[in-house]
Please model this.
Amino acid sequence: MLVVSQETELEQALSVHRRLGKVIGLVPTMGSLHEGHLKLVKVAQAECDIVVVTIFVNPTQFAPNEDFDKYPRNFVSDCDKLESIGADILFAPSVDLIYPNGKDSCTKVILPDSYTKILCGRSRPHFFDGVAQVCTILFNIVKPDIAVFGEKDRQQITIVRKMVKDLHINIEIIGVPTVREANGLAMSSRNNYLPVEKLSLASNLFKMMEKTASAIKTGNHDYEKLCSSACQQLTADGFQVDYFEIRNLHDLSSNLSNDICIFTAAWLDGTRLIDNYPLPSFNNHEGCGNGS
Model:
């Protein structure tokens, strides 16, 4: 595996493959890799000839009171994991390379409020601007044909897909289903923050989505009541619920006439967990449950 930190090094490595018409894939990450990340790389390997994995903890998607400084960084371990699955190139740029004039003076992408002021965007209003900004920069540096993202962050991948389409960025975005622990907990680097004794309780977030999905499948279309009940139970379990909502699977809207998805985020023992449960090809009555 080639490990590079400079844009010129990366372009030199990729130029040969471009000339040969190879399909180049990108897997953007913030490091602290787990099996979910490795699944993204494996999907990219199946779709592409050359795969670039990036590790960059992006400061513009963290608010001043968030966990940028303590976000887990395990570069040597990450390299070993990527080597073990045959990754081609690891690009690990510095903050100065990504934001040469400083992160606060870098051009931003303006995203539609209908995508960014809901769900995670309500409590993290800075987050998706930072995601769009760094993705655009990485897309321009790597120039991939395909980029692979995990569906655990479904709001994020939905916004990236819209941005790529609206700005005519010629990249195919591929989503990969969430990889879970045996108890159903979605794999996340932030799970490392949780005490071992809380990991079992954390899986209740997924179990509550399963319970809600089961109720919907058996004909319960009172989404507001379902979401309210879920919030009450999660609160009783010890979670601080940010939201538990049912929205359109594809555009995050409150149009629930076709494909829908359960979205949730909650704090447990100081750690913020997010998850979602898609219910595609399911005819529903209109309505939207709000867990805020």
User: Anything to note?
Assistant: Confidence is low (pLDDT under 50) at residues 284-292. The chain has eleven helices and nine strands. The radius of gyration is 19 Å. The first strand starts at residue 2 and ends at 4.
